[in-house]
Amino acid sequence: MPRYLLSVHGTAERTESGTYPSHEAMLQGFADTGAFNERLQRDGHLVFAGGLEPATTATTVDGQGEKPAFTDGPYLETQECLGGFWVIEAADLDVALALAVEGSKACRGTVEVRPFRTAEPVRTRPEP
Amino acid sequence: MTGPTVEQAITRAHHEEWARVVADLARRFGDLDVAEEATAEAFVAAAERWPREGVPPNPGGWLATTATRKAIDWLRRESQRDAKHQAARIVYDDTPPEPTGPVEDDRLRLVFTCCHPALAMEARVALTLRLVGGLTVPEIARAFLVQETTMARRITRAKAKIKAAHIPYRVPSADDIRERLAGVLAVVYLIFNEGYLAGEGDDPLRVDLTDQAIHLGRLLRTLLPDDGEVAGLLALMLLTDARRPARVSRTGELVTLDEQDRGAWDHTLIAEGNALVRERIEAVAAGGGPPGRYQLQAAINAVHTEAPSARDTNWSAIVALYSHMVLLDPSPIVRLNRAVAVAEVDGPGAGLAEIDRLAEVLDGYHAFHAARADLLRRLGRGGESRAAYDRAIGLAGNPAERAHLIRRRDQLAG
Question: Taking CB atoms and an 8 Å limit, are A92 and B168 in contact across chains?
């Protein structure tokens, strides 16, 4: 079954209520997201899900050189950043998009849906 | 004498069978690339063999069989490059399509896949023209004034996304079909409008695009004969296209509706369009649900085409239809069109008052300034009219439209 990454994007700036407008909104968002996660689990879509600490807690690693390089902070310094994600299984994109709509409502964020690469051969013909 | 006949048979087969062959292969092989390549190769084979061997008694069947063989050959060639995928790629579903009526037609699956909302609008347009319409990549590139390589890449990317993201090859469920169908109709109407009043380039009309849009409209009508908006869009395109012969003057200037030679209109297309409008009016009267935007626009065009002149047009009916449309779509452009009709019923002053309310949102739209200019002229406010024409001319991308606006401006006294 195809797998999709549903990533939640929002403002990098966080207050005491995270990226939510108020404490009440945050609690409601957590409750709705929890309910959505349970539904994903129940219907056999859920592979893995999680919320992330702020981008300021990230460390960027480049191990390609002789000595590994560690940089404090995210790979991209942007106004918007990844706040959390789901990895789901869905029969096709229509199913994944419908779930993303629900997830977006629940967590009050914009969701990017991206397919995982599958074993299906990647086109061997070059782009014209 | 057989030469032109064979050529006609190939053109006709292309028109009638292309989408069917692509759609059938796409379902059986589960791959749009294979379907497209194999169908194109089958038509090349027809062009080589039919002049020598004669046109087969069942051209559609011949093309389908040939394309299937080409698809298998193509997959074999591909899999030789990468033998381990052979098993995966060569298996295909050979069951005939379920004969459960037109909604299950593979061509409808193909249309919905090409117009999937997860694809960018320009990708939907390009894919639909290529896979459903059978236009070649160079033809599509020329129609949209982009480089051939750019258009080829656009189509390749869209097909790659369909495959990688698992965009399903199916007709949407009953819950989604209304919205998804509206998306399909928007693609077809965009193609039509791009041909009917091209936004840029030197040709004021691109007949290849209007013809192709009407072809797609007829196909949808065949596949979904009971849908009101499908009928409405086809009627709208037919009634608009019927006026094409009178729309651009010999000197390449746009001729507006009020100045057109109505005798030059295509009365066959008008009859076909009017019959569809009548069918919809009867269906709505019989309780078939309220008409959507395409049906209303078709009805407005039917009012225009039955009028002997612009002055003798039933403008009250047009205002009423636009008022109805504003309820469905309160966009400033619909309101602008309504205001133009209001000016014909209640006078240019009333029309101008409505138009001026849209000034902020439509300031960058040439038709807004052109409509204002015309009403200001009729109100004898020459200076303001000239300024509005200048704005319209500066914003108009279509050369025929620009020529028309320049003449109108230069006709202003003083």
Answer: yes
Residue pair A90/A45 in contact (Cβ under 8 Å)? The answer is: yes
DSSP state at residue A18? B
Question: Cα(B42)–Cα(B64) distance, rounded to whole angstroms?
Answer: 8
Q: Which two tokens stand for residue B25?
A: 């292969």
Any B CB within 8 A of A74 CB: no
Three state DSSP letters for B142-184: HHCCCCHHHHHHHHHHHHHHHHHCCCCCCCCCCCCHHHHHHHH
Secondary structure of B357-406 in HEC code, one letter for each residue: CCHHHHCCCHHHHHHHHHHHHHCCCHHHHHHHHHHHHHHCCCHHHHHHHH
Q: Please provide the average confidence, as pLDDT, over all residues in chain B.
A: 90
Q: Taking the model in full, what pTM does it have?
A: 0.86
Most B-contacting residue of A123, A124, A125 (CB-CB within 10 A), to test interface = A123
Residues of A in contact with B160 (CB under 8 A): 123
Q: Which residues of A touch B85 (CB under 8 A)?
A: 121
What stretch of H or E contains A60? strand A59-62
Set of chain B residues whose Cβ sits within 8 Å of the Cβ of A113:
165
Judged by CB atoms closer than 8 Å, whether chains meet at A94 and B172 is answered as yes
A124 and B CB contact within 8 Å: yes
For chain B, what are the domain ranges? 2-93, 105-204, 225-322, 353-414
pLDDT in tens, B202-252: 666 778 889 999 999 999 999 999 999 999 999 999 999 999 999 888 888
Subunit contact B168:A94, Cβ cutoff 8 A:
yes
CB-based contact, A97 to chain B, within 8 Å: yes
Residue A121, chain B, CB below 8 Å: the answer is yes
User: What is the domain partition of chain A in residue ranges?
Assistant: 3-53+77-115
A121 to B168: CB separation less than 8 angstroms, yes or no = no
Torsion of CA B261, B262, B266, B268, to 10 degrees: -160
Which superfamily does A3-53+77-115 belong to? Dimeric alpha+beta barrel (3.30.70.1060)
Q: What is the ipTM of this complex?
A: 0.83
* Inter-chain residue contact B172 with A128, CB threshold 8 Å: no
Cα B195 to chain center, whole Å? 8
Q: Do A128 and B156 touch (CB under 8 A)?
A: yes
> Among A17-26, B65-74, B305-314, B373-382, where is mean pLDDT lowest?
A17-26
Residue B390: CA count within 13 A, CB half-sphere: 6
